[in-house]
Amino acid sequence: MRAALLMMTLLLGCGAGPGSIDSAGKVKVVLVAGAPSHGPGEHEYTAGVLLLARMLEQRGDVAATVVRGGWPTNVATFDDARSIVYFSDGNLGHPLVQGDRLERMADILVRGAGFVCLHFAVHFPDATADRILPLLGGYYSDATSINPVWLADFADLPAHPANRGVAPFQLTDEWYFNIRFSPESARLATVLHAVPPDVARLTADAARYPGRSETVAWAFERAGGGRSFGFTGGHVHRNWGEAPFRRVVLDAILWTAGVEVPAGGADAAFDPAWLQENLDPK
Question: What residue ranges define each of the domains in the chain, with the CATH number in brackets?
Fold first, then answer.
């Protein structure tokens, strides 16, 4: 079990060489974990990305590189990545809004790499809207969005590669909604949606839409090429133990990396004991 983790490239804030396809013909995916945050069992960024990396590498055609701390010392770590995944704090604490990193990420993504933001990492300051909307297609806005904990019933799953092999499911998490989306809706696709309780509509804007089904995960095809995915769940670490939950994210990462998602979805062995490994000290 631990030996499997050693097979991944694990970067503690340092760089790795470029190569979207390595010598073994594998697709390079970079998964970035933010600094420790929240209480035990919540926002377990390091444990979460290591779980995803372990499952992706079971396919045999993905080389997963994990970066801790929100940004590599050597930005060449991102060179030729087919997809870059962020699981980190957001808003003013988002690693990508520090200094000129958002601009640098835009320069990296312009060549067509995928871009994935999970949970708090979809939360960007409203001042960055004109920069993040073209990259992610939507974001959690302090002006309109809300982040309650609620039981979402995903009874209707839209047809999309990120939903392949995913059966309808119900799950309690801190599902953000009333997301601010890009006006270029033709390139946006809902992946997960559900109707939250109206008592959870705690912003004035959210309260305008009682009973509306809300998008909590979306896919975006960027202008000029490149695919992005926003996923608002992930507050509760134990939810990675739910097969539909993790399959949506695995499918989406493959889709953003340009890898054909199998008809039955991304299948990976999972051991519940893994949920207790690599937890941040809190």
Answer: 2-276 (3.40.50.880)
